[in-house]
């Protein structure tokens, strides 16, 4: 049996279409929009390169549902059809080579850094820990009508994505953004129908999903990215996560992507990961294995995969249906073709370290370093996998000043 047989195998969804292989380019924040929050020619070139690179499914970086709720500079917003032709060009580029392109739709909630958005909103007015809160405006609790309006905005963005030619959307319910805040008892302390019990905390995500389904066609895919856990005391737990995923399966969600952590606990960046987990490569493999014993919903497992052998073993064991990879695609947009052809057996991702603890310990430069690689691809330039981190730091400071490290995320 060839090592890459399962990776190359198509996956057919029940009552829907097929994805040509088991490789998913997971979302990465590009930060490449115009000042009016629109796609650029660099975005089109980047996604065309990824599509040519052989990935079965590409998931975009955050696309925000309105221009008052921006997570970072350079976010794309899709809230009306004024510039739908630009989004059609993006979809055409990203769906070439028989590739699926799903738009990740998101609202940051209170994770809006000072100077990016004028206001921070959340399920409840619960501050971040003091050391983190200083970077964020004080959040206020959403009114119920605002919650209903946000649900309608998610559905509107998804409908526009379908009209533009994207083959699906992924609802971002992980990493401490607004939906994740609603799911978390740490951040959601409401006493109305949107808070309290897990069933109530799930209501926001449930109604977003159902609103999207009501506004899109039967062939349009709707997936969800969700935490296995927030890895925080009194936060969203693995037990909570399994309940929510079972409910999403019952509702008919097409695909679940498993992640974990928030910007308070950055497991998603590979920080604070146990040595035993690193040895197995996939950060959330143990959770996925247990989930697969309880549900049949297709899943993507993202985070930590570095060898083709381990990817194949995870697929063979039934622990996951798709392998999600993000950072390797930033230094090699053709990673899927190389992996499937046998040219690439190990994905070497070196830590981005400057020797400055304040920068290195928080993973701040890793985000900007990879964004710089995406920008090079978008400009038609070759990537620089060996680009020295200290030069990346100097370039970032020269272009943006120190405050850039307060305004970047994955």
Automatic annotation (TrEMBL):
It holds the Pfam family Oxidored_FMN. One of its GO terms (molecular function) is oxidoreductase activity. The keyword NAD does not apply. Keywords: Flavoprotein, Oxidoreductase. CDD domains: OYE_like_2_FMN. Residues 8-343 form the NADH:flavin oxidoreductase/NADH oxidase N-terminal domain. This is NADH:flavin oxidoreductase/NADH oxidase family protein.
């Amino acid at each position: 049996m060839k090592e890459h047989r399962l990776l190359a195998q198509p996956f057919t969804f029940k009552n829907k279409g097929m994805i040509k292989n088991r490789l998913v380019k997971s979302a990465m924040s590009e930060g490449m929009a115009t000042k009016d929050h629109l796609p650029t020619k660099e975005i089109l070139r980047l996604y065309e390169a990824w599509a040519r690179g052989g990935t079965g499914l590409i998931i975009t970086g955050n696309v925000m549902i309105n221009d008052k709720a921006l997570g970072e500079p350079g976010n794309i917003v899709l809230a009306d059809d004024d510039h739908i032709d630009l989004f059609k060009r993006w979809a055409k580029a990203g769906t070439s080579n028989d590739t699926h392109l799903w738009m990740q739709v998101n609202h940051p909630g209170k994770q809006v850094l000072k100077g990016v958005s004028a206001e921070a909103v959340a399920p409840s007015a619960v501050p971040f820990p003091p050391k983190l809160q200083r970077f964020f405006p004080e959040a206020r609790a959403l009114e119920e009508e605002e919650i209903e309006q946000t649900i309608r905005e998610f559905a509107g963005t998804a409908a526009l994505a379908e009209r533009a030619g994207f083959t699906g959307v992924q609802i971002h319910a992980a990493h401490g953004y607004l939906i994740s805040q609603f799911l978390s008892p740490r951040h959601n302390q409401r006493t109305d129908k949107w808070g309290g019990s897990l069933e109530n905390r799930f209501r926001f995500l449930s109604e977003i999903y159902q609103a999207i389904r009501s506004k899109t066609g039967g062939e349009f895919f709707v997936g969800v990215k969700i935490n296995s856990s927030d890895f925080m005391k009194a936060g969203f737990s693995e037990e909570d996560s399994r309940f929510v995923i079972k409910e999403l399966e019952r509702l008919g969600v097409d695909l679940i992507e498993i992640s974990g952590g928030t910007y308070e606990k950055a497991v998603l960046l590979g920080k604070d990961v146990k040595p035993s987990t690193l040895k197995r490569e996939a950060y959330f493999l143990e959770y996925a294995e247990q989930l697969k014993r309880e549900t049949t919903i297709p899943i993507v497992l993202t985070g930590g995969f570095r060898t083709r052998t381990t990817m194949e073993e995870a697929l063979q064991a039934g622990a996951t249906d798709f392998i999600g990879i993000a950072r390797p695609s930033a230094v090699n947009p053709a990673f899927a073709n190389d992996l499937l052809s046998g040219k690439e057996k190990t994905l070497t991702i070196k830590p981005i370290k400057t020797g400055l603890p304040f920068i290195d310990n928080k993973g701040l430069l890793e985000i900007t370093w990879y964004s710089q690689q995406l920008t090079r691809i978008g400009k038609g330039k070759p990537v620089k996998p060996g680009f020295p981190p200290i030069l990346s730091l100097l370039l970032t400071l020269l272009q943006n000043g120190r405050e850039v490290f307060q305004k970047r995320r994955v």
